[in-house]
Amino acid sequence: MISKNWYYFMEIKIFRxxxxxxxxxxxxxxxxxxxxxxxxxxxxxxxxxxxxAGERLNKDYYYFFSKHLIFMLFAVFLMFxxxxxxxxxxxxxxxxxxxxxxxxxxxxxxxxxxxxxxxRWLDLYFFRLQPIEIIKPxxxxxTAKILTLDKTKTTNTSYFFSFSILLSIIILLINQPDIGQSxxxxxxxxxxxxxxxxxxxxxxxxxxxxxxALAGLLISFPDKFGYxxxxxxxxxxxxxxxxxxxxxxxxxxxxxxxxxxxxxxxxLKDSVPEAHTDxxxxxxxxxxxxxxSILLISIFLYISFRIIKTTVKETDKDLKISLCGLTALLxxxxxxxxxVNTSLLPTTGMTLPFLSYGGSSLLGSSIxxxxxxxxxxxxxxxxxx
Length: 385
Fold this sequence. Notes:
Blueprint: H1 2-25, H2 28-56, H3 63-84, H4 87-111, E1 113-115, E2 118-123, E3 128-129, H5 131-147, H6 156-175, H7 179-196, H8 200-220, H9 222-236, H10 244-256, H11 268-271, H12 280-288, H13 290-313, H14 317-341, H15 359-375, H16 379-384
Antiparallel strand pairs: 1-2, 2-3
């Protein structure tokens, strides 16, 4: 009995030591920034979905807010779990997790759920999962592993293999179709290989190949991908197509001004179908003003600055490339979302990390945050202790 109690006592002691080490080594400024974004996302989810639930769907006003709260709590738990896992163990499970998620992405065309002409989700009974949102951080980590297999240099074979994986994912995304996520992954991949030391000529070649392949698809399958040309034409000349959503979003931002119309006073969420996901920054700007949007952008930039500050000191090439890729993903996705909302970019369905409504988006954000917190921990303190 004594030995059993002693065993439990030692287990508790070891666990407390791990918690103390975690708290001592984690970048608390990045951690608190992520938590603030999660909480703001919860607040804005109520502001952007209450009228949709209560007046248009005849449900409780807290219907979407309650769902978002559940997803947020799980997302925060997942973030802490990933950031708490021992680094060496986490790096060992990156490849298996990526393979599983890639298989899930392959299954989407066959067993996926089609919504508004796009088949991007898997029905898991309790919620719909969009695999690409989950696979993005692991694609970056897997690519970094490939590029650093040879510790002395990154070979052309590594670049070709990583590009082959990117191309496979892009083909699956275009088939859904999801051009926005395809562009996001291409931009992120280019950032990763650039940091790894690839020649500019190779990047230009990969970029040219991607553009040529996309042009070939548009020409070969006009019925399936004609909407892309339509969106580009509408972006260049709004009179040539339906620019209703982008124009409404831009008008909402203008109406909000610097201080905003006030919580619940915006009209964008009642006039645009996906306002709580693809146009959340416009909803925020309309009701809370440009000052709220500027604050949010500042938080994203501050997180990126903290990551880059750690990356500069990082000696492990795998961690360095991974952190640069994760930062690029966060920044590109944020500014693509803002660019679409402000009519600076063509319309594409792109959520704003941490803030847009949606379980898959939140889970993807939590994985991104968890990995960043894990990779930016101060391990020199552990070595000194």
